Amino acid sequence: MDRTVILEALGQLDDRYIESAAAYSAKKVIPLRGKRKAVIALLAAAMALLLMGAAVIAAARGDLWMQIPSKDPAETVRTALENQEGKDYTLAIEVKRVEVDPAETEKVVERFIKGVIAERQGWSDDYLQQHFIVVKAEYYAEYDHEKTTRSDGDVVQYFYLTRDEKTMRWSIVDNSGNVNWSEDPGTAGTEATIEEQIFLYLSNRFTEAFAPYYDGLRYEIRGYKEAVSEGKVTADIWWTMYHLGKGWDVSSDEGVEWDANMHLQLTAELREDGSLDPETIVVLGNSNPIGPPSFDTPLEEYFPDQLNQ
Fold first, then answer.
1. In terms of pTM, does the model score above 0.70?
2. What is the DSSP string of 172-193?
3. I need a surface site. Which of 75, 139, 197, 261 has the fewest CB within 10 A?
C-alpha cells in the first residue's frame, strides 16, 4: 500500500483538531497530552499494518466517517457506509445504491461551496471543477436507540468529496444531512388539519435549508395556537429543530442530539377545501424574546447561506 496514503490519513489528526477539541470543553475531552499519545499509538499501529500489507482505514473529518480513499469516489463512500457497522450505536447497514450525482455536484458547488468555503479551503474554481464531486448514497439503517437518536429506515444522503492531486484518490470532506424516507410525511391531503399542513410546510422548508449542514433532522411543534377569520389563518408556533452533532471537534459529540428553538407566526389564505394557499404563506420570527412578541423577522433569515460559515 502507498505510504503516502497512510501519512495523508494520519495527517488529518493534526494539532488543529487536538487543540480545538481541548478548547471545546475540558470536561468532555481527553487531555491534550493524552490526545498526542493516542496519535502516536495510531501511527505505530498504522505502520504495523503497512508492514503486514493490510489496508488502512482513514478517519475523515466531518462525521468521523471511516473510509478508504479510492480513485473511484463511489467506492470511497461505499467503504464509509459499510464501516458504519463498526460504531457502537449501529445495528445494521445495508447499502443499496452509491453513485456520482453530477447535477447535485453543480448545485452544491454553486450554492454552498463557492465563496467563503472555497476561500477558506484554498479551492480555486479550476480545482472545484476537476477535484470536487458529490456522491449520492441510498441505504437502510438500524440503530441502537439507547445510544443515538438516529432514525431507522431507508436513507438518502449526499457525500462531498475532494481528490488529492498527487494520489488522485477521493476522500470525504463532509456530508449532507440524511433524509429518512420511512419518516417522510408525504403530501398533506384535504383532510389534514391546519396544524398538520403547517408542520409539513415548515418541515420541508427547514429540511431544504439545513440538510446540507446537519444530520438526523427532525421537528416538533409546541404551544400551537391558531385563529381563522374571513378565510385567513394566523398561527402562533413554538418550533424546535433537532439535529445530530457530527463530531468535528470532539468525537464524543458525534450522534449527540442538539436542538434549536424559535417562536414563529404563520399567516396564509385558506382555499375552499380548507388547505393552505402556498402562494400566500408568510412566516415571521419573534425578535423580542422578552415581553410581547414582535413577529418581524423573515423565516429565511434563520437559514444558513454556506456550509460551516
1. no
2. EEEEPPPEEGGG------TTS-
3. 261
DSSP structural state of residue 112:
I
Buried b (16+ CB within 10 A) or exposed e, 59-76: bbbbbbbbbbbbeebbbb
Write b or e for each residue in 26-35: b if 16 or more Cβ atoms lie within 10 A of its Cβ, otherwise e. eeebbeeeeb
Residue ranges of E strands in 101-208: 132-143, 153-163, 170-175, 179-180
Q: Note the pLDDT of residue 10.
A: 38
Residue recorded with cell 377545501:
273
142: number of Cβ within 10 Å: 15
* Contact call for residues 66 and 78 (beta carbons, < 8 A): no
What is the distance between the alpha carbons of residues 190 and 231, in angstroms, rounded to a whole number? 15
Q: Using one digit for the tens of pLDDT, what is the confidence trace for 61-82?
A: 444 678 999 999 999 999 999 9
- Which residue type does 19 have? E
C-alpha cell recorded at residue 102: 453530477
CA angle 24, 259, 173 (to 5 degrees): 60
Banded pLDDT at 40 (limits 50, 70, 90): very low
For the record, the C-alpha cell of 55 comes out as 489496508
Own/partner long-range contacts of 45-51 (Cβ < 8 Å, ≥24 apart): 46/6, 46/9, 46/10, 47/6, 50/1, 50/3, 50/6
16/141 Cα distance (integer angstroms): 32
181: which residues sit within 8 A by CB, 6+ positions away? 153, 154, 155, 156
Task: Give the span between the Cα atoms of 215 and 158, in whole angstroms.
Answer: 11
